[in-house]
Design goal:
Fumarate Reductase Cytochrome B subunit; binds protoporphyrin IX containing FE; 2 strands; 4% strand; mainly alpha; two-stranded antiparallel sheet
Length: 193
């Protein structure tokens, strides 16, 4: 082992336990969130939709808090993460990850501003985030009406590309990209030491 010290933080061979926990917990929450959105788009009156949709605001707001924490943690670890490849694919990966962050933040942020501007208040998991003021603020409502759903679907498309590339790296090109997010270090055979 080259790394006897704590693996809380990221390092050039892989992601630390905090980054990995945030990545996979949020991936599960996003799967749940997209399921509720897809059911809502198909038929919002179905009982199964009513069940999943009743969680959409709570899980969405939790994701907003989670992405803020994850973004701060990413910045703290920025200089110490596994390097991207050089050339086109590396640049595409870097831009793709930045775009994921932008959409992960913008989609729930727009919806939260809309909830505030609606004057009806917002609760998540039964906890009141802000009370209803009764005043409608169109400037906070309109952006989400225009873009929340659209950007949400754009995020789903981007995630599909992200997962495809992660699996391509691992199983087609047999590189250590997936292991550094799963185990936090390269597979034994690929280690230099
Ligand atoms: C990252 C988190 C979120 C994702 C990925 C997401 C995704 C989506 C998607 C794809 C739709 C379109 C569904 C359809 O076409 O029927 C949608 C609709 C909606 N979402 Fe979210 N959402 C998130 C967070 C939130 C939050 C935090 C709230 C409330 C505070 C919220 C409230 C709504 C509402 C009211 C709609 C129906 C109106 C509309 O399409 O804009 N969402 N969401
Ligand atoms: C089965 C699902 C998923 C797999 C297999 C997967 C795989 C990976 C892998 C292997 C990395 C490391 C890439 C590298 O070091 O260059 C990574 C990083 C990343 N993934 Fe995923 N991912 C999945 C789902 C998601 C989802 C749902 C999101 C967001 C909506 C996401 C957002 C990110 C981001 C932003 C990074 C950059 C590192 C970070 O800041 O956490 N991933 N993913």
């Amino acid at each position: 082992m080259t790394h006897e010290h704590s693996t809380l933080f990221d390092h050039p061979e892989g992601y630390g336990s905090v980054s990995r926990a945030l990545h996979w917990l949020m991936a599960l929450l996003f799967a749940w969130q997209f399921l509720s959105a897809m059911l809502h788009a198909i038929d919002r009156e179905m009982p199964v939709t009513r069940f999943f949709w009743s969680w959409h605001m709570s899980v969405g707001f939790l994701l907003l808090i989670a992405v803020i924490l994850r973004g701060v943690w990413a910045l703290i670890n920025l200089g110490n993460r596994p390097a991207h490849a050089t050339g086109f694919l590396g640049t595409a990966a870097r831009l793709g990850h930045v775009a994921l962050y932008v959409l992960m933040a913008a989609v729930p942020l727009l919806a939260t501003l809309r909830a505030y501007g609606s004057g009806r208040g917002l609760s998540a998991f039964g906890i009141q985030i802000f009370a209803g003021s009764g005043d409608r603020i169109p400037a906070l409502v309109e952006p989400a009406n225009i873009a929340h759903g659209f950007l949400g679907w754009a995020l789903l498309v981007l995630v599909a590309g992200h997962v495809t590339m992660a699996l391509t790296h691992a199983f087609l090109w047999r590189e250590d990209t997936l292991t550094r997010m799963l185990r936090g270090r390269p597979a034994p055979a690929a280690r230099a030491d």
